[in-house]
Design a protein that fits this description.
Elements (H helix, E strand, L loop, with lengths): L1 H19 L13 E4 L15 E6 L7 E7 L2 E4 L13 E7 L15 E5 L9 H5 L2 E8 L5 E4 L5 E9 L6 E8 L4 E5 L4 E4 L6 E2 L1 E3 L2 E6 L2 E3 L2 E8 L2 E10 L3 E3 L3 E9 L9 E3 L2 E4 L17 E5 L8 E2 L1 E4 L2 E8 L4 E6 L6 E3 L18 E2 L5 E2 L1 E3 L2 E2 L3 E8 L4 E8 L3
Parallel strand pairs: 1-8, 9-20, 18-21
Antiparallel strand pairs: 1-4, 2-3, 2-5, 3-4, 5-7, 6-11, 9-15, 10-13, 10-17, 11-12, 14-15, 16-19, 17-18, 20-22, 23-24, 23-27, 25-26, 26-33, 27-28, 27-30, 28-29, 31-32, 33-34
Length: 406
C-alpha cells in the first residue's frame, strides 16, 4: 500500500510539472525563424527580390538541413521548416544563397556548406548579368531558439574597364577579354572564403553602362586586359594592358580601370595600368527601409491539449485582444510568434487570475506558471467566452466575461 501511495504522489507531481511547462515536441524543437538583409545594388534595382526564392542550409549540428525560403520584405518564409533540436545547446551556422535563375528556383543546396563555382562556361562565355545576381549570406554560431539574421552580399569582385579609343585609322573596339586570373573555385560559405582552383580561362567582358565589365573570383592576380579592335576590310588588332604587380581582388568590391588606345600604342606589347577601388554599390536593405520586426501574440492552452494557437489582434500599438472560449479550470499562456522564445504567464506565487482590471494586473515574461481564470481563490469561473486584453510593452492583462454576462 505504501508503494502505491508514493507512486500516486510521483504521478501527480509529474502531471503538475507537465502542465506548468511549455509543451515540447517529442522529436523536434521549435522551427527556426529567419530574417534577411539584401543589398539593393544597381545590378539588382531592376530585379526586385520580393517574392523570389533563396536557399538556406544549416551545418552538421542540424544534420545539414536545407530548405527554400520566400523573400517577403525583410522576412524569409521557409517552404519547409528547419527545426532546432530539443534541448539543443550547440550553436549552429546557417548560410543563404540567391541567384536570379531563369526557372525562378533557388540555387541548389551546397554540400557541407561549400559551393563549387565557375565564371566561364564550357563554350567560353561569361554571363555577367547572371553572376552579378549571385548573393551569399552567412550567420555564424547562432544560439538555439534565436532568429537567424542572413545579411546577403556579393561574394565576388566586379571589374569595369573604360576603353578610350583615340585611334585615327578608323578601327573601333570589338571586344575586351580578361586573362591571367583563376576562373573556377569552391566557395566555403561558412568560412566566407574561396578555395581557388587552377583553371585560368579567358573571360570575355560585357559592355555595361559604358564599361567592359566582368565578375571574377576574389584572388590576388596580375590581371591582363586585351582589347580587340576591328575595321571592315582589315584584320583585327589586339592591344594588351597588364598590371605592373599582382592586385588583391576582394569580395564585394568594384574595381575600375581606364585604358587608352592611341596611334602610339604598340600592338601586342603590354602597357601597364592600375585600378581604382570602391565598395560594390549598396543602397541598404531591400526597399531601402528600416528593418522592422513584426510579431503576433496568441493564446494556447489545455482546452485542446495545447494543440492550436488562438491569435490575438493588435487593436492599437502593443495592445492585443481576442475573445476565447474558456473551459472552467483550463490552463493557458500567451506567447509570441507561436513559439516559446517569448511568452507570458502568471507571476511567481500567483495561483489564478481574476476578472476585470486591477492595479496588480500584470503577467510575467517567460513565467513557468500557467494562467488559470477564477472568480476568487475558491471559485472557478463558468464555461463561456472571455475577452482578453494584453499589453505587450508592460505585460498588463485584463480579462472580462462576454458570456456568461458578469
Amino acid at each position: 500500500m505504501k508503494k502505491l501511495f508514493f507512486l500516486t504522489l510521483a504521478l501527480a507531481a509529474a502531471f503538475a510539472c507537465q502542465k506548468n511547462a511549455a509543451p515540447v515536441a517529442e522529436t523536434t524543437g521549435n522551427a527556426v525563424r529567419f530574417r534577411a538583409e539584401i543589398p539593393n545594388t544597381y545590378v539588382l534595382k531592376s530585379t526586385a527580390l520580393e517574392g523570389k526564392k533563396v536557399r538556406i542550409a544549416a551545418d552538421a549540428t542540424l544534420d545539414n538541413a536545407t530548405t527554400v525560403a520566400l523573400v517577403e520584405g525583410n522576412k524569409l518564409t521557409p517552404e519547409t521548416d528547419i527545426f532546432w533540436k530539443p534541448e539543443q545547446t550547440a550553436k549552429t551556422t546557417f548560410v543563404g544563397l540567391y541567384q536570379d535563375l531563369e526557372s525562378g528556383d533557388a540555387p541548389a543546396a551546397p554540400t557541407d556548406l561549400k559551393q563549387e563555382y565557375g565564371m566561364v562556361s564550357g563554350e567560353g562565355a561569361h554571363d555577367y548579368a547572371y553572376h552579378s545576381t549571385y548573393l551569399t549570406a552567412t550567420a555564424k554560431d547562432v544560439t538555439p531558439e534565436t532568429t537567424v539574421n542572413l545579411a546577403f552580399k556579393h561574394p565576388f569582385s566586379k571589374l569595369g574597364v573604360t576603353v578610350t579609343n583615340d585611334l585615327t585609322d578608323g578601327f573601333t573596339v570589338k571586344g575586351v577579354v580578361l586573362k591571367d586570373i583563376v576562373t573556377k573555385g569552391t566557395l566555403d560559405l561558412a568560412a566566407e572564403t574561396v578555395e581557388l582552383g587552377t583553371e585560368k580561362l579567358p573571360v570575355p567582358a560585357t559592355l555595361v553602362e559604358g564599361k567592359y565589365s566582368a565578375i571574377i573570383l576574389p584572388q590576388s592576380a596580375k590581371l591582363a586586359i586585351y582589347v580587340t579592335v576591328s575595321k571592315e576590310g582589315a584584320e583585327d588588332r589586339e592591344y594588351a594592358f597588364t598590371l605592373t604587380a599582382a592586385n588583391a581582388f576582394v569580395a564585394n568590391k568594384a574595381y575600375s580601370a581606364n585604358v587608352k588606345l592611341t596611334d602610339e600604342t604598340v600592338v601586342g606589347e603590354a602597357v601597364g595600368f592600375a585600378f581604382t577601388v570602391a565598395d560594390w554599390e549598396d543602397a541598404g536593405t531591400l526597399e531601402t527601409e528600416e528593418l522592422v520586426e513584426t510579431h503576433v501574440w496568441s493564446a494556447i492552452g489545455s482546452w485542446d491539449d495545447w494543440a492550436a494557437d488562438i491569435d490575438l489582434t493588435e487593436t492599437s500599438a502593443g495592445i492585443w485582444e481576442a475573445d476565447i472560449a474558456y473551459t472552467a479550470g483550463a490552463q493557458f499562456k500567451l506567447r509570441q510568434d507561436h513559439a516559446w522564445d517569448k511568452s507570458a504567464g502568471l507571476k511567481s506565487g500567483w495561483s489564478f487570475y481574476g476578472l476585470g482590471a486591477f492595479d496588480d494586473g500584470y503577467l510575467e515574461e517567460n513565467s513557468s506558471v500557467n494562467i488559470v481564470l477564477k472568480a476568487n481563490a475558491d471559485t472557478d469561473v463558468e464555461d463561456g467566452t472571455y475577452h482578453i486584453e494584453f499589453h505587450s510593452a508592460d505585460y498588463r492583462f485584463i480579462v472580462t466575461a462576454v458570456t456568461p454576462e458578469p
